[in-house]
Amino acid sequence: MNAPLPVVLAAALLSAAIATMPADAAPRKRNTRALAAVPPAASVTQPPADRFLACDVRVRDYLREGGAAIRVTKIEVDDARLQLNIHHEYGEAGKSSRKYLRGDTEEEMRKNLRGILDEFAAAAKAATAGRAWYVIAARKVMPELRDSSGETTSPWTAIVLADFEGKCRPITFYQSVERNKLDPELSKKLDD
Q1: Which pairs count as long-range contacts for 173-182, CB under 8 Å and 24+ apart, including other chains?
Q2: H or E segment at 187?
Q3: pTM for the whole thing?
Q4: Going by C-beta distance under 8 Å and a sequence separation of 6 or more, which residues neighbour residue 19?
Q5: Which end of the chain is more exposed for a tag (fewer CB within 10 A), N or C?
Q6: Burial (CB count <10 Å: 0-12, 13-18, 19+), residue 93
Q7: DSSP conformational letter for 131
């Protein structure tokens, strides 16, 4: 009589486990159907993406007194001289000013070098992806460049902006943009 008791007990436990399995699985199926009927949050009407992405406010602020914003098509990195060569839809903007390594030790300078090269690589990647702009703006709206030396006479200056992972970052500045050296179509855009 001792032998049948464990067999009966095991059979009772097994049948209890089988009986609870379908009951436990049924609510899960209903919940997934109910969740599928609810529209995802992404389907809620979002405003259209701005063509200047994260640089939307800065570009428009710089253009308030005239100027032009054109897409940067390519950024070439000169890693030996630590400078960039910017190309836009109308040709070449020219080379950026050179970056200088900072630090008291070689290790600090290497760390600074890695940071500069990472920033340059991100700028080149942003240009390739269509997330960089060459903005020619009136000198009076560029607070960073107002106090430049008196040697430049052009009323136009430029900045290259790029969208890095949703943040607008300045890449380089051009102290003076000579209008007579610009493509005629680009020069017309400055008056629009």
Answers
A1: 173/97, 173/142, 173/144, 173/145, 174/93, 174/94, 175/145, 175/148, 176/152, 177/136, 178/154, 179/154, 182/90
A2: helix 184-189
A3: 0.70
A4: none
A5: N
A6: buried
A7: -
Q: Report how far residue 168's alpha carbon sits from residue 59's, in angstroms, rounded to the nearest whole number.
A: 10
Q: Residue 81 has which token pair?
A: 């001289």
Inter-CA distances, 167 with 49, 56, 58, 74, 137, Å: 14, 10, 11, 19, 21
Are 78 and 84 contacting, i.e. CB atoms less than 8 angstroms apart?
yes
Residue type, 31: N
The conformation of residue 44, written as its DSSP 8-state character, comes to S
Q: What is the pLDDT along the chain (192 residues), one digit of tens a residue?
A: 455 666 655 666 556 556 555 555 555 555 555 555 555 555 556 666 888 889 999 999 999 888 999 999 999 999 999 999 999 999 999 999 999 999 999 999 999 999 999 999 999 999 999 999 999 999 888 766 544 555 557 889 999 999 988 899 999 999 889 888 888 898 888 877
Report whether 83 contacts 178 (CB < 8 A): no
Cβ partners under 8 Å of residue 174, min gap 6: 93, 94, 157, 158, 159
3-state class percentages of the chain: helix first, strand second, coil last, to nearest 5: 45, 25, 30
Using DSSP bridges, classify how beta strands 167-174 and 67-78 pair: parallel, antiparallel or unpaired.
unpaired
